[in-house]
Amino acid sequence: MEEPPEEPSQSQESWRDHHTWITTQDILREKLITEDSFSWKLSSKGASQGETGYKKGEELRYVGGVDISFSKDDPSKACGTLVVLDFHTLQLLYQDFSFFTLQVPYVPGFLAFREAPVLQQLLEKMKRSDNPFYPQLLMVDGNGILHPRGFGLACHIGVEANLPTIGIGKNLHHVDGLTHSTVRKLLGAEENSSKDFINLVGCSGRIWGVAMRSTQGSIKPIFISIGHMISLQTAITIVQKTCKFRVPEPIRQADIRSRDYIRKLGMNGKVT
DNA sequence: GCGACAG
DNA sequence: ATCTTGTCGC
């Protein structure tokens, strides 16, 4: 018998790890809830600002956003960030950071095993301390069910934290025949020219999410998919209401502040 | 077989 | 993800 040639640089990530990861995703996916499942509600148009008799906590108010940014010097150094914004005013209510060293490589389809642990820790820390701003909904920088096995980062965090989540992708993850050109064709189609979002229908007929022109006149869409305990329709509504720019504010703020945190640590190479 | 592939 | 300043335009 021949010895399988060793790949020194690959010794950390064998196909075995992927198999374990797939099993984990398959198991967690059984707990996924793909419809609205929360106690709050979206305030009805016009009655949102004033106190109209709703009990506190019944309306959506605390929207979280998570992101991770990396040091350009040392790609294994990163900063996980959690922010919470007021759904109506989009003002920052809470922010927390966690600087850490990455142990797991990025492998397409397995982003959660690299990024979910830190983000979950940030959520857990907030919950343990009974912070009144603990998010009622979390927006995640990465996909939900728009994923090879229908279980992206947003689903992963949602299930493990038992929290409603929405996945926001800035690039399309090719799944079920969906490609860059597919989307371009759909967005450019005559009958869709006036719509601000289109369903991402794969070859199988399944709807994986939507591509949305979040800002008027923006060419490059964002990709919205459900994470956990929320319907696509509700997810779309919430994203639209939180978009001042292309990327919804909770994600955008987490991104900006995360970068800023790393920069202020002097991890950007500039020593001037 | 080759290429594609969230962050 | 990260590499990158100014610049053209609403």
TrEMBL record:
It comes from the Eukaryota. InterPro entries: Endonuclease-V (IPR007581). GO terms for cellular component: cytoplasm; nucleolus. CDD domains: Endonuclease_V. Pfam families: Endonuclease_5 (PF04493). Keywords: Cytoplasm, Endonuclease, Hydrolase, Nuclease. The keyword Magnesium does not apply. GO terms for biological process: DNA repair. GO terms for molecular function: RNA endonuclease activity producing 5'-phosphomonoesters, hydrolytic mechanism; single-stranded RNA binding. It is found in: Cytoplasm. This is Endonuclease V. It comes from Phaseolus coccineus. The lineage of its organism: Eukaryota, Viridiplantae, Streptophyta, Embryophyta, Tracheophyta.
